[in-house]
Amino acid sequence: MGGQLSMILPLIILLLVMYFLLIRPQKKREKEVNAMRSGVQVGDEIITIGGICGKIVKTKEESLVIQVGADKVKFEIMRWAVSKVVEEGKRPANGKPDYDAEDEEVEVKKAKPKRMKKAAPVEEPVVEEVAEEAAVVEEAAEAEEK
After folding, report:
1. Residue 44 backbone dihedrals phi, psi, to 5 degrees
2. S-S: 66 plus which of 26, 54, 71, 84, CB 3.0-4.6 Å?
3. How do residues 70-98 score in pLDDT, each as one tens digit?
């Protein structure tokens, strides 16, 4: 009986060490991430697992609608695609903005990128014009030789 216990004891110790060093911390991190994903609200700025940065404009049961870029493009992502919350929306408990005179910041309006104009089509020289130019160049070359 004592021989069998001495053979099984290292295996049991190894399993306990694996549980406390690997499994338990992983489950704790998973709970924190799930709490973060379920706690996102309208106004929060997030980064998705694909690297897209955006602001939440609408929440649904399993998905979020985010607004991205200067053009304010909106698209829907799944909640599990949220990597982290960058900045939580500033929302007081009563739902109205709470501004102090000293904390008021001047909002700078971002300039939209200018649209590029289409370039005018380049006209190809007509074959006759090219032939005339070649003749003029040849005559000039002959004149220099004389």
Report:
1. -75, 145
2. 54
3. 999 999 999 999 999 998 766 545 444 44
The three-class DSSP label of residue 142 is helix
Cα–Cα distance for residue pair 81/64, rounded to 1 Å:
10
Contact status, residue 54 vs residue 85, Cβ threshold 8 Å: no
Which residues are within 8 A (CB) of 83 and not within 5 positions of it... i.e. 6 or more apart? 46, 47, 48, 49
Q: Pick from 39, 72, 47: which is nearest to 57 by CA?
A: 72
Q: Which tokens in the block code for residue 89?
A: 């929306």
Enter the tokens of residue 138. 């040849």
Cα–Cα distances (Å) from 35 to 11, 40, 80, 99, in that order, read: 35, 9, 11, 29
The pTM score is: 0.52
Q: How far is CA 113 from CA 47, 53, 54, 73, in A?
A: 23, 19, 19, 15
Structure-token pair, residue 93: 């408990």
